[in-house]
Design goal:
Blueprint lengths: L13 H22 L4 H8 L2 E2 L2 E2 L2 H23 L2 H23 L4 H22 L9
Antiparallel strand pairs: 1-2
Length: 140
């Protein structure tokens, strides 16, 4: 490659990296859950009013909505919160979500385990980028 055709290596801001990781995680999260609707056993459980041992009722649906809303908001909040707050929120939430996703994959079908493993890797990357958030140089 000549100097004229060399592509510029641009640094991506940590906020954008973290926001993009939350977005990717949510896509996989949503699609893996949607794919479950192709399973006769899963549909039968829904018809019986239970999912993974939980009764489907107003409290369950409120809780699952909150569970999805939090990472959805993190897509935006990672971009606008003060750095110290964003760093702590991203570390705490990515660890909590990774643990719940791993626990939820126990005993599941292989497609679900694969999706959950990828989600856990994306959440680990969020933890890493938040943990290693660039620091401003202090004036001498």
């Amino acid at each position: 490659m000549t100097a004229e055709t060399k592509l510029e290596l641009s640094n991506v801001n940590v906020r954008i990296k973290i926001s993009a990781l939350w977005t990717a995680m949510l896509f996989i999260f949503a699609y893996v859950d949607l794919f479950s609707l192709y399973r006769p056993d899963f549909r039968a459980d829904i018809e019986a009013g239970e999912i993974s041992g939980f009764t489907i009722n107003e409290s369950f649906l409120l809780g699952t909505t909150a569970y999805v809303v939090i990472p959805s908001l993190m897509v935006f909040l990672s971009l606008v919160l003060p750095p110290a707050v964003s760093r702590i929120a991203n570390i705490a939430l990515s660890v909590v979500y990774a643990l719940t996703i791993i626990a939820g994959a126990i005993g599941e079908w292989n497609y679900y385990i694969l999706g959950s493993a990828i989600e856990a890797v994306l959440l680990a990357a969020i933890t890493y980028y938040a943990w290693t958030w660039p620091r401003e140089a202090r004036p001498a």
